[in-house]
Write a structure and sequence with these properties.
The protein is mostly beta strands and 704 residues long. The chain contains nine helices and 32 strands. The strands form six sheets. Strands 13, 14, 16, 17, 18, 19, 21, 22, 23, 24 and 25 form an eleven-stranded antiparallel beta sheet that branches. The longest helix is centred in the first third of the chain and has 9 residues. The structure holds MU-OXO-diiron (FEO) and calcium ion (CA) (2 copies).
Length: 704
């Protein structure tokens, strides 16, 4: 009964949007089949208070008493700083990672790519693209070639991993001639990776180890091709930065207030400070000090034995989507056959060691990556950092689950400019201590929201909001929970303070040009169904199939503010559908878009959006829209990915000459296999996830 294939529905059966059931199975362990993990009856701001806004735009919140925080306050917080990581002698170029964007706009004149179902990567006229890396390519010098008949943990640990998601590009030289590409490998699909696959049980332990090694991250040095926007893997020189980080063997240090707590201690790590591996790394971000953050997302699906936990532990496991009824949850990967720590019956704390934000220093190949407990534990989509005006750094984060929350972290310490070893050593500690907040949203038109997506009479889905303090250093602000509990079981803390239940918050990214924050809310077909929470102004459609974008503006332009206003600049779908909105732009000129997932910015602050699970019948794609000025909402499709695939990553280089995307799970369609692939991309044989770079043939800036 544990055979994953037997659980698969008919060929090409869709779940939500065009996302195939095979993707649901492998990527998130059929999260949508399980009960909504957030069963809390927390009422949120819109229910509890008058939804009026005062003239100053401040929430009038008399009824919520202690939950209301000081207006416009900043924070400093105590919190003991831990020692700087050892060995911060990386050779980092004098590049200002925090100043990539300017405020402004540039007309987007390219001809939009139409929706399509082609098994190709399609770019606009006048553009070209190439595959930079695909599954199995050499990362560590001397890696063996991909041989699907003989994959082992050791071989895969040197090769490019599977199902690339986040893409970051960090310059090694100020000219951008050489760069470091950092990529997440979110999950594996054994049906499409191993010949003759029948079930997880039938895989050899060595194949399981290969799958574990195909998770994690890759760091690879690239070089520009001539003077174009194209990049290729550097195949000469030392390649000393090239590195694989895996779920199989890479050691991580745990930092922050929950490090060493009883919740993180295991038989193999009685101190609770060192974890082997990282799981389900989804999106991420580049920090102003030149490191990469990566979110551990659907970690729940890798564990078995939750049925044997105590009642108290079961409640915590359930809130994180871990099955507590069956020894083997449906779709189990059976990794405990290779490593018993994935059996919660033997090692009940092991699940607590995943679900964190991971920081990797790609400039120091010897550095040990870290899991930062100060940023909380949930199904982290990713984290994106901005330096606030007062010098503290702020990380914005989403918990990608139906009806889960938006968070931000504010560092205790201030960012130090420059890339000297001293500055960098300091900046590498910024995410180890600070304050974690969760968002509560208020509304301006609550009474008008009927779930249809009809725009309220004040012309906007909008409102105000506040950041509720959960924990600062070792001090908890959540009744009945210690700081370590708040950080390790952050979802439960969010429930207690009445955070706003959102439609799957994916990427949450500040524009470095304006400080405004953009949230991709990908979809939530459970919204307003059964006993689930009804539509509200921030999640205004019942059975939300197409998702929306939320813009969050911190009061006073201060990213450490405790209050903000928000609006929905884009409500996705077919522009002909009246339940869509594109900032009032002429809908006849807008590309259809569905299921926004990752967001990014170019150097003039245009918003780029990639999609996961187009519910309009087209392949997924990458879109761009100006987000300021008269062209705001003029959304155009820039590229589409091959059949079955998802568009991940997007990254636009600071010179606007190159757009990178990750093509994740091409050909992931039920019934497909290695021998009978549903996609032949990119090499004409079986499907392989890969990273693509796109550039303008005439060398001009992308999009213009
Ligand atoms: Fe892995 Fe939230 O997408
Ligand atoms: Ca309104
Ligand atoms: Ca994602």
């Amino acid at each position: 009964m544990s055979d994953r294939r037997r659980l698969l529905p008919l060929l090409g059966a869709n779940r939500h949007g065009s996302r195939d059931s095979m993707t649901c199975l492998y990527r998130c362990g059929n999260a949508c089949d399980h009960p909504v993990p957030n069963t809390s009856d927390n009422q949120y701001l819109g229910d509890m208070i008058s939804t009026e806004v005062s003239r100053r735009g401040v929430v009038r919140a008399g009824a919520i008493g202690a939950l209301v925080l000081g207006v416009g306050g900043s924070l400093a917080g105590a919190g003991a700083a831990s020692a700087a990581p050892a060995g911060t002698t990386a050779d980092v170029p004098e590049v200002d990672f925090a100043a990539r964007q300017q405020s402004g706009s540039r007309a987007l004149t390219f001809k939009a790519v139409p929706p399509n179902k082609l098994d190709s990567l399609i770019v606009p006229n006048g553009y070209d693209h190439s595959v930079v890396l695909r599954w199995g390519d050499e990362v560590v010098p001397g890696a063996p070639a991909l041989d699907v008949h003989n994959q082992t943990g050791a071989r895969q640990s040197k090769q490019f991993g599977y199902n690339n998601d986040f893409v970051g590009v960090l310059p090694l030289t100020s000219s951008g001639k050489r760069v470091l590409l950092v990529v997440n490998h979110e999950y594996t699909n054994e049906d499409l990776m191993f010949p003759g696959f029948t079930s997880q049980d039938a895989l050899t332990v060595e194949q399981v180890k290969a799958a574990m090694a195909a998770h994690g991250l890759s760091v690879v040095e690239l070089e520009r091709v001539d003077d174009t926007g194209e990049y290729r893997v550097r195949d000469n020189g030392s390649r000393k930065y090239n590195r694989r980080i895996t779920a199989l063997a890479t050691k991580f240090d745990v930092t922050g207030p929950a490090a060493g707590s009883a919740y993180l201690q295991t038989a193999a790590d009685p101190k609770g400070r060192t974890v082997i591996g990282t799981l389900n790394n989804c999106a991420g971000g580049i920090t102003p000090w030149g490191t990469v953050l990566s979110g551990e997302e659907n970690f729940n699906q890798y564990f078995v034995g939750g049925n044997e936990a105590s009642a108290d532990v079961k409640a915590k496991l359930s809130r994180y989507g871990i099955d507590t009824t069956n020894r083997y949850p449906s779709g189990s990967r059976k990794w405990e056959r290779a490593d018993e720590r994935f059996d919660l019956a033997k090692h009940p704390n092991e699940a607590n060691r995943f679900g964190w934000i991971v920081e990797v220093d790609p400039f120091d190949p010897e550095s040990r990556p870290r899991k930062h407990t100060a940023l909380g534990r949930f199904k982290h989509e990713g984290a994106n950092v901005i330096v606030a005006k007062n010098g503290h750094v702020v990380a914005y984060m989403g918990d990608d689950e139906r009806f889960d929350y938006l968070y931000k972290f504010v560092s205790d310490k201030k960012f130090e400019k420059g890339n000297s070893n001293k500055a960098r050593e300091h900046n590498l500690t910024l995410l180890e201590s600070g304050t974690l907040y969760v968002a509560k949203l208020g509304y301006t038109s609550a009474a008008e929201i009927d779930g249809s997506g009809k725009l309220p009479s004040d012309g906007a889905f909008n409102g105000q909001g506040q950041w509720i303090k959960l924990v600062s250093g070792d001090q908890s602000f959540v009744e009945g929970m210690t700081a370590a509990e708040v950080l390790t079981f952050t979802r439960l803390a969010g429930d207690k303070v009445g955070a706003t239940k959102m439609d799957r918050p994916e990427d949450v990214e500040p524009s470095l040009a304006t400080g405004k924050v953009y949230v991709a809310l990908t979809n939530n077909t459970a919204r307003g169904t059964g006993s689930n929470p009804k539509a509200d102004e921030a999640n205004p459609r019942t059975s939300n199939r197409h998702g929306h974008i939320l813009e969050l503006v911190e009061d006073g332009g201060d990213n450490t503010s405790l209050t903000f206003t928000w609006s929905l600049p884009i409500v996705c779908g077919d522009p002909a559908d009246p339940a869509t909105y594109f900032s009032g732009y002429d809908k006849t000129k807008v590309s259809p878009i569905s299921c926004p997932d990752n967001v990014a910015f170019d150097s003039v602050g245009n918003l780029w959006i990639s999609t996961d699970g187009n519910a309009l019948g087209s392949n997924d794609g990458l879109f761009v829209t100006p987000i300021e000025g008269p062209e705001k909402g003029h959304l155009k499709q820039f590229l589409t990915v091959p059949v079955g695939g998802e568009t991940c990553g997007p990254f636009i280089t600071s010179d606007d000459r190159s757009v990178f995307v990750a093509v994740q799970h091409p050909g992931e369609i039920s019934g497909a296999s290695l021998e009978n692939p549903a996609s032949n991309w990119p090499d004409g044989d079986f499907a392989k996830p890969g990273v693509v770079v796109t550039w303008r043939v005439d060398g001009g800036p992308i999009g213009a």
